[in-house]
Amino acid sequence: MRVEGKHYHTVWLDGKNVKMINQPMLPFRFEIVTMKTHIETAEAIKEMVVRGAGAIGAAAGYGVAQAALDAPKESFKRNIGEAVEHIKNTRPTAQDLFHFTDAVSKAALGVEDVEEGRRKAVETATAMAMDQATMGEKIGEFGDELIKDGAKILTHCNAGWLAFVDWGSALAPVYKAKRNGKNVFVWVDETRPRLQGARLTAWELANEQIPHSIIVDNAAGYYMQNGEVDLCIVGADRVASNGDIANKIGTYEKAVVAKENGIPFYVAVPLSTIDLSIKSGKEIPIEERSEEEVLYARGESEKERSLIERLRIANWKSTAKNPAFDVTPAKYIAGIITSKGIIKPNKEEIAGLF
Ligand code: MRU
Q1: Which sequence positions are flagged as catalytic?
Q2: What is the dihedral of CA 162, 22, 35, 55, to 10 degrees?
Q3: Number of domains in the chain
Q4: Which of 81, 109, 137 marks a domain boundary?
Q5: What is the pLDDT of residues 191-248, one digit of tens each?
Q6: Residue 152 and residue 229: Cα distance in Å, rounded?
Q7: Is any ligand 1 atom within 6 A of the Cβ of residue 247?
Q8: Whether residue 232 is found in the same domain as residue 121
Q9: pTM exceeds cut of 0.85
Q10: Gyration radius (Cα) of the chain, Å
Q11: From ligand 1's centre to the CA of 56, what distance in Å?
């Protein structure tokens, strides 16, 4: 991702520190924050300083590497085990978090010598993160084939640069299409309650100079019904072996309305998001987040631009519910765009990827 001419990854390891773009401050301030231990990195995942399935995965992998670098020789194995448990308990839905955590801890514990274990952990976490960026670019190349010149694309939440180490999943085809000279326009669902669409996707698209409009989540059906959407592309936090997917709350509704209106609905993911251990979307754990995210809004003050304010937007006596994801059954999905090509969302084609 380029920000004011400089290339950034969303999250990276710098010595013993994990550095990341502070996503809750976007689009108002662009800042990098430093997590000095795996405990701080886990907290950053939980509090969504870093968010998006791929970026969470990479941060988790780096967190295990931090634990490997910090653990004393005598308790190396026990400390890694505890760190893995701690990191896995941050957020339940994104498969990448588990995939990265397991792979890095296996690398750390797969050798006899502790110093070698530390090296392996850092090497594996870094290689996996870089590989994810490469896979994102490949997803972009395959997805670009679906995009005609002048296409209007609808996306939900943020599955762009910021949801991965680089490139993204759902937005990677859009970025490739733009680089290949096509005119594209993106409808950006604002994505209540955390506004990943309005805050993050729109910021990315503005950086890339791609025409777009932010719409309230409830307006997507209106534009689909009126012929204003050619294609939907979303990301996913987990894909089950039958092709059901979990993605940001509201995705299911968009997929149903897209099918009703004959609009192809695609899901873009790296292979690390596919969970072959579960048969269907019914087994995907859905995160329930704090009601405060629904009852309050947060934004920059119009009067004093540097001031970030929190406002109560419902009456003080009401409570709220806040499921963060929903499951879209495979029957609503036209195809899954992966780094190995575009496949149908079924058991056979998914198994064929591995
Ligand atoms: O809660 P978040 O912001 O971590 O949710 C993740 C998402 O942004 C989406 O669900 C996204 O579409 C898939 S993540 C690549």
Answers
A1: 237
A2: -10
A3: 2
A4: 137
A5: 999 999 999 999 999 999 999 999 999 999 999 999 999 999 999 999 999 999 999 9
A6: 5
A7: yes
A8: no
A9: yes
A10: 20
A11: 9
